[in-house]
Design goal:
Blueprint: H1 8-28, H2 32-41, H3 46-49, H4 51-75, H5 84-99, H6 107-113, H7 120-149, H8 155-158, H9 162-183, H10 189-199, H11 203-230, H12 237-253, H13 260-274, H14 280-307
Helix pairs in contact: 1-13, 2-14, 4-5, 4-11, 5-6, 5-14, 6-7, 7-11, 7-12, 11-12, 11-14, 12-13, 13-14
């Protein structure tokens, strides 16, 4: 379910974030000067003039989907055999189901529904492990990005809460460490099966999955930086990659649902990259372009997969 009326607090929180993001985007991007710049930047011939960039972005999308489908195939290998085609179908189906859940937390639904009935419980566990590894990449690289940009002129001034956020991340990691220590002791029956499933993975298997997660993160980052370059940004590449890392980190913490993700992610991107001196309209265009490429297109493919699925 996308929004639960039984939990109005979460609904109100998401609507507040959406309203703030909309106000921020309209005030920073959709004013007359920026609209003129937008019309100049993107016209009918823009993408035809940069067809090689688009080809590279699509190629990276294919690599991204390949990495994720390989992870899914590998994590399910002990439960059921999945062909590369079936694994890819499950991944894009997950994109579709994730579109209709807050922060795309429901991606596992689309994946699991594509599995045989006897493998679905393990599918939920496998999906949770993959999500945890990908989130760990986002947190680690995001903190590194923050540390590299903390002395950047204008960054801390534009993000006065950045120091607070860093300490919040330290607290989060401390809590995760505490949870891990608790996991080493007795667990409630509710989580015992998840813990045992995690332990059933060999260290080499987890390392392989973690490596693929890092590769996927690198591909995401490269896509975003290339999108910024595509729309005319000329800037230090190291700072761009650090900015993208911070963007991914903050985006993962901002509540969103349905298509509001376009606005909230755009607002976060504008806030971060404006502190580095990048034009708001270009950053918003790049963020929207990447969302369309990496989320909307796979979700559309997943909709066809789910529609044509045979019981």
């Amino acid at each position: 379910m996308v929004l639960s009326l039984r939990d109005p607090g979460k609904v109100i929180l998401k609507l507040v974030f959406l309203a703030l993001a909309l106000a921020f985007i309209f005030s920073r991007v959709f004013n007359q000067d920026h609209l003129t710049s937008l019309e100049y930047t993107v016209n009918a011939s823009f993408f035809f003039e940069h067809i090689e960039w688009l080809f590279l972005e699509v190629l990276l999308l294919m690599i991204n989907l390949f990495c994720e489908s390989l992870k899914w195939k590998y994590v399910m290998a002990g439960t059921c055999h999945l062909s590369k085609r079936d694994s890819l179908k499950a991944v894009v189906a997950g994109f579709t189901s994730g579109m209709f859940t807050p922060n795309r937390t429901g991606e596992f639904v689309g994946r699991v529904i594509m599995l045989p009935a006897h493998a679905r419980i393990n599918g939920v566990i496998g999906s949770a492990i993959l999500s945890a590894l990908q989130l760990l990449c986002t947190i680690v690289f995001g903190i590194i990005g923050l540390l590299f940009l903390k002395d950047h002129a204008g960054f801390m001034e534009m993000l006065p809460s950045a120091r607070v956020f860093i300490w919040s991340l330290v607290l989060l990691l401390s809590v995760l460490t505490l949870i891990f220590m608790i996991f080493r002791g007795p667990l409630s029956r509710k989580f015992q099966f998840l813990y045992e499933a995690f332990l059933s993975f060999r260290k080499s298997s987890l390392l392989f999955l973690a490596s693929l997660s890092v590769m996927r993160y690198v591909v995401f980052s490269l896509q975003f930086v290339l999108a910024l370059l595509l729309f005319g940004i000329s800037y230090n590449l190291g700072d761009l990659f650090c900015g993208v890392a911070v963007f991914f980190l903050l985006s993962s913490a901002v509540p969103s649902f349905l298509l509001s993700e376009i606005i909230t992610r755009g607002a976060v991107a504008v806030l971060i990259f404006n502190s580095l001196g990048l034009p708001d309209v270009t950053v918003f265009l790049a963020s929207t372009f990447i969302w369309t490429l990496n989320i909307a297109l796979p979700s559309l493919a997943g909709a066809f997969v789910l529609t044509l699925r045979k019981e």
